[in-house]
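seq as requested:
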Amino acid sequence: MGEPNRECRRFELPRVLGRESWIDIWNPFFEHAEADALFGALREESTFERRSIWLFGREVTQPRGITWAGDLPYTYSRSTLAPRRWTSTLARLRTIVADVVGADYNHALLNLYRDGRDSMGMHSDDEVELGAQPTIVSFSFGATRHMVVRAKRAIAASEPKPSYRFELAHGDLVVMGGAMQLDYLHGVPKTTKVDAPRLNVTFRRIVLDSRS
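C-alpha cells:
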C-alpha cells in the first residue's frame, strides 16, 4: 500500500452550548491508483444487502447496499449488526485508521451507493454504545458525492440552523469529532447528476457491548 497523504483541512463548526465540533478532511488521503485498488478489493471481498431499519416509527428499506465487519454488535435504527470477520482490505484500513486517530476501531460499516438515486438520510452517530462524544472516521471511494451537515438547533434564537456541504471524492478521508454527533446531523442527499457507484467505509469505536 502506498504512503497516504498526511495533510488535512480542519473545519471548526459553530459551537452549540459551548461545545466544540470539528471535521477533518484529507482531499485526497489515497492517491488515485491506490484508491482504485482499494475500491476494487472492497467490492470483490464484500456481499452487499439492502436491510430494513425503523425510521420515524415505520419500517423502511435502506436506500443503499450495506455490509460490515466488527468485533462487537452495533445497533442503529433498531437494526443490529452482529459481529462479523474482517476482510483483509478492511483490516488494512483499520490499521491506517488507528494510526491517524490514535485509537483502535472495532467496527466498520460499508455503504454502497449504486448511483445518485441512493442516499443517506440526515442522522447522527449518537448510539449509546459509541460513548458520549465519538470520533467517526469515514473513507470515500468511487463517485464524488456531497455530505450535508446541519446543526440540530440554531446557534442564536434569531438565526437559522447552520448548514454546510462538503464534497467527498475518490480516496478522501473524513474524521468527525468533538461534540458533532451531539449537536449536528449529517447525510448524503440524492442527486440526478451522478450515475456511477460510490462506496463509503465508516469506522466506529464501540465502547459498550449492547449484549451486556
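The mean pLDDT is 92.
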